[in-house]
Amino acid sequence: MTTTSPSPALPRRAGRTCHNAVNPLHSVLYFSPDLLRESAAIGLDSFAPAYLAFRAAPLGAVGAGVVTSTFNSFKHDLVARHVPAVWETASPAAALAARLRAVDATLRRVLGDDVVTSPEMAEAAGLALRAAEACDRTGRPLYSAHADLPVPEEPHLALWHAATLLREHRGDGHIALLLHAELSPVESVVTHSASGRGMRPEWAMRIRGWTAEDWSEAEARLRDRGLLDAAGELTPEGAELRKTLEEETDRLDHAPYEHLGAAGVERLTELASAWRDRALSGGAFPADLFGKG
């Protein structure tokens, strides 16, 4: 992989910083009791089928192979236990409607109605949607499927929709780079966890279906490649690989933030950072979710 310097139109890593502020406003849904309440109302009574249905629904009633391929970091055995059977319980349209209801309840609860109904929320939604105008469908199936959905009218739902577009656009590009680096799905998760920036191993295994044996075998392969040491920490080579992956992901994801412009990126980052911090301080995410195990 070769690393290209970011555009001079934006400060270095401004797009990644903005993503890191906006993305939690999307992902807070998946740790919300509102997700389980709304999914149960359509017959999905546990986290795995709810998550898989809610995130895959824009793709249509696809099979397990498509979901495993596009999600990348989930074990196929877990996906196949629920997909495509999940569509017999809840159609993609029903899952999308339930998802928006859960988003509405979650954002109102973790941010408060004062934020949800504020002029700043409408401003942030407009900025994020403006950025998403420059996203590219090519080779990005999850982004492209979400881009076919209508933009919700309410600003907080429109912001969540735009955050989802930006998240999946970045994620689709990142998967291509993981393939280029010859990291398998579980190896990708292990190295991300070892970097201290991903989920802790116990959370990653629980949510994504990997077993302790899967994890241990992946660590052994990564040690053979010189990417992990005996203690499960990234070696200098492993740390450099993760650094390069993030920089290359920035390169593939530059268009939305360059399109929005430096002032817009700075303002969106400012607004989203304040709401992210409010959600974090309010316990919207498990305290032990991220960091090294």
TrEMBL record:
A Pfam family of this chain: HTH_67
InterPro entries: HTH_67
Top-level taxon of origin: Bacteria
Protein name: SalK
Gene source species: Streptomyces zingiberis
